[in-house]
Structures are given as structure tokens and as C-alpha cells.
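Human: Cast an eye over this sequence-structure pair and say how the chain folds.
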Amino acid sequence: MVKILQFDPYQDFVNFIAVLLEPIGLDQYAHFIAIVPFLITLYIAYLIIARSIRISFKKAGFPREAITGVIFMVRLVFFGIALIAGLAVTNLIAGEGVIAFGALTGTAVGLAFSRSLSNLVSGLYVFASRPFRVGDYIRLGSKEGIVQDITLNYTRIRRPDATIELIPNSDIVESKLVNFRVRADEYLEQERPERTTGYFRTAMKTLKGFTTGEEVYRYTFEIRIHRLGDAISAKQRLEEVVEKWHDKFLAPPEMYYSSNDYNGIAFGFGIIVRNAVDIMNEGTDFQAELAVAVHG
């Protein structure tokens, strides 16, 4: 009969510690002391990984808050490993108990911090993809305004009514996002060459005067004419307002047909401004005058 030799380096190490502690009567604590080197090694690994993350994220241009958030999550992971491994190695809890404890703890933490963790992950995505930056004018679903600050959990925008709203980053990832900042030269390249009449032709001439790479804001919105209203007359009044505002922006306002459904006809409008705050000032006045022209 062949005897199978079992190799258990950890148990051998515990026995070695027990032999060293036997003269002073502490051999019964060998299991506890044996875990110390493992914890030290785990801590060194955490320091190395945290330092690597900090250096890499700084080179990538991530803000300090994002770096701190990532390191905090890594710290939680290492703490969980240390806790579970410590319980298992010291035999305070049986193997099945460690698995159950880990699952229970993970579930409890997940339920308690699911929203926060979702915001953290979404915040990292926002920092990495950079769909907008501070100072941009964005539209997120039905909300819009100027981006004031971007944190790991929330994005703060200033709405047209001057109120400050905190939007969870998870909502930003899940919602339709429009950033009205454009590069003048790229905008001209994307537009169809055959669309060279009316207001758009004048707008193209204005944009061609910008230097390559210069950024502006092209803000668009809709004005709807109810299906029971006089669409022809309303359209004429809208065109008069557009003509009145011909010299108010960097380029003459655009007016175009947008959609037609059971509720009525919608006309789209576009304005080009140099600064995002101009959308809230002159842009809001322009929208108000168009609305009055249609609805009286």
C-alpha cells in the first residue's frame, strides 16, 4: 500500500511557531501569530497596488477625488480578503462558515451601498470617457444647464433658472446626453454640402472665420404648433422673429422643419454662441419671443 504524503506549508509554519513559543507557554497562540506574516504581505501588496493606481491615474489626468475613490474601493477589497482569510486560517470559523459569512457580508454591503457604488463606478466612467467638462452646456433627458462641477458621485449643473442641481452620475450614464459644445471646423465637415441656402449658408460663412479647433456652442430646441392652430400663420411669425434676431448671435439663427405628429407640427431652431452662459441669457430671450409669437 502506497502512503500518500501530505504537504501543508502553513501547518508546518504553525508548528514551527509553536515550537518557538513553547518555552514561554504561548504555543497555544501559534495560529494567531502565524497569520501576522500573511497580513503583512497583504498590506504590502495593497500599498504597491494603491501607489500604482495613484501614479497611473495622475498621468491619465484623473482628478484627486476619483483617485481617492478608487483607492478606497481597493482598500475595502483588501480588508475583506484579510478578514475572511484570517477567519479561515485561524479556524475560528469552519470553511463552510467562512463562505457563508463572506456571502452574507457581501450581500449586506452590496444592498447598503449599491447606489453609492453605482455612482462611484459611473463617476469613473464619466471621468474616463469625458463626455463633457466643467463649463459645458449639456442636456440630460429633460434637464439642462451649465456644468459647474464633476465629482465621483455627482455632477452639479446650473439650470437656466439659476438653481443648482446635483445629478447622480449613474443617471448620466443611463440617460440620453447632449453636449452642445462643438468644434467649428468639425461641425462644418459634418453638415451636408448641399444644404447651402438660407440661414445655414450665412452660418457656414461665419463659422469658417473661426480658427481650426476653436470651440463654440450650437444650441438647438423645438417650438411646437398645436394641430388645431394656424400653422401657416404661426410659421410666418416665427420667421419674423428669426429675422429680427439675425445679428444677435455669432451666426443667424437656424429654423428648420423638425417633426409632425398627432399633436401638431414642430419646428427646430439652432443658435451658435461663443459662451455657454449666452444660451441662458440671449438664448432664453430668443426662445421666449418665439413662444410668444406662436402662442400669443
User: Anything to note?
Assistant: The chain is about 55% helix and 20% strand.
